[in-house]
Specification:
Chain lengths: ~120, ~110
Amino acid sequence: DGGITQSPKYLFRKEGQNVTLSCEQNLNHDAMYWYRQDPGQGLRLIYYSQIVNDFQKGDIAEGYSVSREKKESFPLTVTSAQKNPTAFYLCASSPHPPGRNHGYTFGSGTRLTVV
Amino acid sequence: QQPVQSPQAVILREGEDAVINCSSSKALYSVHWYRQKHGEAPIFLMILLKGGEQKGHDKISASFNEKKQQSSLYLTASQLSYSGTYFCGTENYGGSQGNLIFGKGTKLSVKP
C-alpha cells in the first residue's frame, strides 16, 4: 500500500543539538510539506517542496532546514537555532499541480520534546 | 491570512447535527477539510474547488461560497466515530499553487 512514513514517532532533543526527522513517501507525489502543530494553533507551514532539488520557506522556517535530493524523501532538521522546538511535526505530500479530488496525505507524525 | 474556524469546540449527542464554518479574508481557490484524531495524522475528507460547489461523504457534506470566501462542513446524524478535530485548509488566489493555510481547528466530541 502507498503511504507516507515518518520516523521516529517520538524524539527527544537536548539543548544545543540538531535533530533530523525523516519523511518518506511512495505515492509518487511531487509536492511535500512540513507542518508544525502546537495545541490550539492548527498546522503551521515550515517548508515545502514542489520538485526535487527545490524547496521554499513557509511561515515559520526560522531554525529549521530541509533537503529534497530524492522525490520520495523530504527530511527536516531542527537546528539549535530553533528556540522552542517542542511540538508535533507532520509531513504531508500531494500531487503537483493539485488534482480536483486530491488532498494532502499526512504521515503519522513525530513528537519532538526538548529535555 | 489564516482562515477562521467556528465554533472552536462543540459537544454533541449521537444522532445530532453540527455545522463547522471556515472563513477567509482572502479570495479562495479551493477549500479542503480534514479530520484528526488525537495524536494521529489528519485524514482528508473532501476538497471544494468552485463557488457554490457542494460535496458529500457518507453523512458529512460541505459547501463553498466563493463570494463570501467561506465554507461550511455539515455533519448529519453524528456518530461516535465523528469525534476529532476538524481543520479547513484554504488555497488562496495569488498564493503558491497547492499550498494550504490551515485554520486552528474545531474540536468535535460526540457522546453516546
